[in-house]
Amino acid sequence: MPGCKSCEATKKRVQDVLKDFPSVQFGEIDSLEEPERIESLGVMTSGAIVIDGEVVFSSLPKEKVLRHKIEETMT
């Protein structure tokens, strides 16, 4: 069974960008395995991006925008 296309695209973009930020940790939350955690974060769409416990993107951002947001959180 194929996975969520939105989730896979988001995961790939995040991992590609994080190659330039080795100190930043990446993790996934499976909505089927951790629905309570998804709900507690307020995630409403698949492929959302959470940084430091806050939903910062509810859809896949452009690489430049994602990179800028990560840089912002590191300062």
UniProtKB/TrEMBL annotation:
Pfam family, one: Thioredoxin_3
Ranges for domain Thioredoxin-like fold: 2-69
Superkingdom of the organism of origin: Bacteria
Organism ancestry: Bacteria, Bacillati, Bacillota, Bacilli, Bacillales
Name used for this protein in its record: Thioredoxin family protein
Origin species: Halobacillus amylolyticus
